[in-house]
Amino acid sequence: MKKSITIAALGLLAGASVASAQSVSFAFSALHESGFNGGEFVSNLSNGKSYRSFCLEINENITVSPNVTYSYSIDTVGAMAGGVSGGNPDPVSSAAASIFVAWLNSSIAQTVSNSTAVQNAIWAIEGEINPSSLSGTALSLYNDAVANYSTTDNAATDNPLFSNIRVLNPYRVNASGGIDRYQSQIILIPLPTASGMALAGLALVGTRRRR
Fold first, then answer.
1. Whether 42 contacts 50, CB under 8 Å
2. Nearest in space to 129 (alpha carbons), one of 62, 34, 7, 37
3. Which of 86, 95, 134, 161 sits a CA distance of 20 to 30 A from 154?
4. Does residue 120 sit in helix, strand or coil?
5. In sequence order, what are the residues at sequence separation of 6 or more whose Cβ sits closer than 8 angstroms to the Cβ of residue 19?
6. In which region does residue 208 sit, left (phi positive, over 0), alpha (psi from -120 to 50) or beta (all else)?
7. What pLDDT is stored for residue 75 in this prediction?
């Protein structure tokens, strides 16, 4: 499913960089479960940068092919114009960010099934699926995250532990001049500082959540 909003309306969203001369294409990671519409992807930017990523919205799509490209913005404000639970933008919470960072740090075993569990736990925290549908590893990840981190903040701007969390928002300008939105991805940008080194050791331990 695609969401379309006009460029003029998009410009009102603080923190969103609309214009981009660069493009992004997507690939399945080696840990992606075949046939699953989420899980771990690789977001490949035309400037040579690549990011491991997970979907933030369950009701939008991307085409996975090196020959299919999208314009994009990389934002701290969250996912744009999509998601079951709404919000435009829709910030990534610290609870969701904590799971993603733990995955990148290999604090969560790097298996295909765990990739799917990470995706489902993130979707549940972000209001895309019902937490009651979770079981096994996904439920454990969800419970640990919501017990220790906020589910209502913006991880990128409100929690110093996650200041390098970003949302990659792919889009295309359509024939009417509007913007078609596609599946937003959570990514982690590098921090070449002492704070980045500290974040590299982060697992599911942190400040108590704020409601």
1. yes
2. 37
3. 134
4. helix
5. none
6. beta
7. 95
